[in-house]
Amino acid sequence: MTSESTVTLFTKPSTPTEPAGVRWKIADIEALFALPFLDLMFRAQEVHRANFKAGEVQRSTLLSIKTGGCSEDCGYCSQSARHDTGLEREALMPLDEVLERARAAKESGSSRFCMGAAWRSPNEKNLAAVIEMVSEVKKLGLETCVTLGMLDAEQARQLANAGLDYYNHNIDTAPERYGEVVTTHTLQDRLDTIAKVRDAGINVCSGGIVGMGEGQTGRAGLIAQLANMEPPPESVPINKLIAFPGTPLADSEAIDPFDFVRTVAVARITMPGSFVRLSAGREQMSDELQALCFMAGANSIFYGERLLTTGNADTDADMRLFARLGLVSI
Ligand code: SAM
Ligand code: DTB
Ligand code: SF4
Q1: CA-nearest residue, atom 4 of ligand 3
Q2: Ligand 3 geometric centre to CA of 246 (Å)
Q3: What's the distance, CA 307 to chain centroid?
Q4: Ligand 2 neighbour 67 (Cβ under 6 A)
Q5: CA-to-CA distance for 307 and 115, rounded, in angstroms?
Q6: Measured between alpha carbons, how far is 107 from 3 in angstroms, rounded to an integer?
Q7: What are the DSSP calls for 137-160, one per residue?
Q8: Is 207 close to ligand 2, i.e. is its CB under 6 Å away?
Q9: 305 close to 299: Cβ distance less than 8 angstroms
Q10: What is the pLDDT of residues 272-310, one digit of tens each?
Q11: Residue 122 in 3-state DSSP?
């Protein structure tokens, strides 16, 4: 019998005693955030260069294979049926269209193709269709990633059998704040799915969103939860909230750009072996701000003109940025 892994909920202790065996204490993560900016950047660069080749950046292309009409109430999401965002629902995309987009992604220089669906969890028929997409996209010579919501152990096993390389399931915010942002599922539900993905032998992609009014303490809580996973996710997307009118978080105060860079640096230091992905929000970032994120240890991006329901930085602009900074795509 195989033993099942669990991913524990890691919250800020109410007593000063930290649980034993915790790799990253909240206080240590808060201390990193409190470092002078240049000291934090220097430490992040040291960690980055000890673990990765400086300047190498992995590129993933996203495709929304099923858009909108989601039963969940995630406060940031344009795709929730519970928020009036004016987004048009779309049915599951046919395989040939997915493959056309995957071929274009490969041609543009992406190494991974990530397919996202606005589901709480996939049903049997939809999972079978996605499994076919995964095996066909793999045949094009691309790594595959899907994000389909919650999975049970059998679904994770089926995706692993199809050769899925990564499953994206973000924890999104600090444990203490999760219930304020989402009420239709819990953080523990998300952690359970991540454990099932791990048990099935699929690489884990899990990160979060900043700029939802969480403050430095909230960001420390988010990073602690990720960095204390055993092992930490192989891929850690750091998303900057895209504030959609009609969502409960539409009026969130934007995060200070340097605090965004600090979050990337702290993720790099606490998860030295993980790819840290500069994710949603890059379209609105200057080249200089993105360069600081790469200095802070980001070594992956979403590449291609669209994220799921919004635009992304243009590929031409990205190519120019890579050339100007001497970045190499892997
Ligand atoms: N339904 C699946 C789920 O929730 O896991 C997959 C799709 S969901 C859109 C994937 C992730 O996109 C979310 O976990 C969140 O991190 C990110 N995301 C969604 N809306 C966002 C927004 N407005 N700004 C930044 N990131 C967002
Ligand atoms: C992740 O961490 N960010 C991506 C991907 N995983 C699925 C999604 C970003 C969504 C941004 C808002 C939108 O396009 O709807
Ligand atoms: Fe649905 Fe995922 Fe959006 Fe939440 S984040 S509303 S689960 S699509």
Answers
A1: 74
A2: 15
A3: 12
A4: no
A5: 10
A6: 41
A7: HHHTT-EEEEE-S---HHHHHHHH
A8: yes
A9: no
A10: 999 999 999 999 999 999 999 999 999 999 999 999 999
A11: coil
Retrieve residue 151's tokens: 């999975």
Ligand 3 atom closest to 72 (CA): 6
Q: Write down the pLDDT at residue 105.
A: 97
**pLDDT of 13 above 60:** no
C-alpha 90 – ligand 2 centre gap (Å)? 17
Radius of gyration of the chain (CA): 19
Ligand 3 atom at minimum distance from 73 CA: 6
Indicate which residues carry an active-site annotation. 70, 74, 77, 114, 145, 205, 277
Tokens of 247: 């969502």
pLDDT band at 8 (very low <50, low <70, confident <90, very high): low
Q: Is the dihedral of CA 280, 196, 94, 162 positive or negative?
A: positive
Which atom from ligand 1 is nearest to the alpha carbon of 280? 25
- Check if 280 has its Cβ closer than 6 Å to any atom of ligand 2: yes
Parallel, antiparallel, or unpaired: how do β-strands 208-210 and 235-240 relate? parallel
Of the candidates 263, 233, 225, the one whose C-alpha atom is nearest the C-alpha of residue 12 is 225
Question: For residues 226 and 213, what is the distance between their CA atoms, to the nearest angstrom?
Answer: 19
